[in-house]
Write a structure and sequence with these properties.
mainly alpha
């Protein structure tokens, strides 16, 4: 139960951060603002998770940011392939 609650809390915080950016970013540059902020937040949360686990914070930040950027790029690519990108 503790792991489930920790996972739900971290997911909620991670999802809320880009939503805050959407509320304050200008409409004309919403996508770059959200993408950039999401990568920054991924780096911060990756570093925090690495510290909590006793690993190197820089390596944790880079690892989470890299895989997050890859996932964002693949998602955008598939969206473009199917014409679902704004």
């Amino acid at each position: 139960m503790q792991a489930a609650f920790a996972s739900a809390a971290s997911f909620s915080v991670g999802a809320a951060l880009p939503l805050v950016v959407t509320a304050i970013a200008p409409d004309a540059s919403l996508i770059p603002f959200v993408a950039g902020a999401s990568l920054v937040f991924l780096a911060l949360l990756g570093a925090l998770a690495a510290r909590a686990g006793g690993a190197g914070m820089a390596i944790g930040a880079v690892r989470v940011t890299f895989w997050g950027a890859l996932a964002m790029g693949l998602t955008a690519g598939v969206g473009a392939l199917f014409g679902a990108v704004a």
